# Entry
Amino acid sequence: MIQNVKLDFKHTNITEKDFMEYADEVVVAHEELHKKIKDKNEPLGWLEWPTKYDKKELEKIKKAAKKIQSDSEVLLVIGIGGSYLGARAVIEALNHTFYNYLPKEQRKTPQIIYVGNNLSPNYISDVIDLIGTRDISINVISKSGTTTEPAIAFRMFRELMENKYGLKEAKKRIYVTTDKKEGALKQIANQEDYTTFVIPSNIGGRYSVLTPVGLLPIAVSGINIDKLLEGARFAQEKYLDSNLKYNDCYKYAVIRNMLYRNQKGIEILVSYEPKLHYLIEWWKQLFGESEGKNGKGIYPTGAEFTTDLHSLGQYIQEGRRFLFETTINIKESATDIKINQDEDNLDELNYLVNKGLDEVNKKAMEGVIKAHEEGGVPNIVITMDKLNEYNLGHLIYFFELACAMSGTLLGVNPFNQPGVEKYKANMFELLGKTKNNGQTKKEAKTKKTSEKNQDTNKLGKRKKESEPEVEKVNKEDKTKEKKVEKPARKKKTGKGKHAE
Ligand code: PA5
# Structure
């Protein structure tokens, strides 16, 4: 079988004989996972998703992506946690390192800007400045449809869109990815007639990158989503084998659990490729939310080498011995650059002449693994042949399945996140939120309307003070001026859908 993603555990001190003691436990967990998938209420839809995804929805995604590419210079992706990290992980891994900074002629596809993943007013304000007068579309993603951060960002940017384009055109530029039936976002989408994409009810946020949650923004950036799914499909088939001896994905799950039981409570996911920064972030969420509960769980963290060897390196080498590392090694770099001869050799680098930078990077990796292993930090190495759609789809599925297996072996439910609610409850209390704020539906609607007017004024004011470009373009660019209508929401006085 093709080994486009390969596991190597020789730097862990754990032998095949050691981990095969878990073989029976793994078979039981594997069968349980696969048995449960028949129950549509179990959050296991991701397990067979690469073969059972909705083909029509995929075509709809591709069509929407083309439209966004043709009419927008910027796509705002509004979402947080599992409704954000996966898309960003794939977009940043597979595109140019400086994708968003490239001139648009070179980039060819829209800039992708992520909002709704924090509550900083500076961030939102700076995004508004960054967008300037350029054409935008929004993809708002929330399974529950009620998550505070994206909901606030959507309220703000929806209004900005409506002020910029008018209600009718704004509707054509807002794409909603949410539950099929439930949640506030679904209600808004129905009311406003936005294009919607469905998050399958049996796939939780952090397992949803290969659903419309990730696929629409990923496709907009020009990545081949068919290939991504193809790689995941290959992995689905490859890791169907419940025999631990032949299943690298389950080996990873077992070995990390063995290390955990051996006082290694922190796992550092390491990469030598900066493009994988957000893959590490996605992985941290996947494992952190899935395993950290009931007072248990490996704490997942990340490091980017060689950068972090000059910050965290000292601790990893000689600090508290509760760490292990999982290194992602990309065998063939997409590009390489040779180091040239310098007659003076004052920097004493001539010993590297004619070597590619990738070789230097790889030797750094080998040196680090050896040093860390000797220093008491076991290393698991996952090698990908190349960083491409197919292999990344494979790796995503690998981590999702490994996480489900690892959580099960740990004795926790890897699909819930009850701990996330605690801060929300405190925050809502501090902000004075009560259920419906004690209002009847009608009162709530009236209040919403008057708040909307106030908000509109606020954003309108902002527009005048710090974003004159929008108006300037309207005046200077006659074509645009024609397109821009005043939002009906502001004009209408008592009739129709948007009557205030
Ligand atoms: O993995 C999860 O379930 C969470 O991280 C969610 O994705 C995150 O909280 C966002 O939730 P929602 O998509 O409902 O807005």
Observations:
- The first strand starts at residue 5 and ends at 11.
- The pocket of 5-phosphoarabinonic acid is lined by residues 80-83, 142-144, 147, 150, 204-206, 289, 417 (CB under 6 Å).
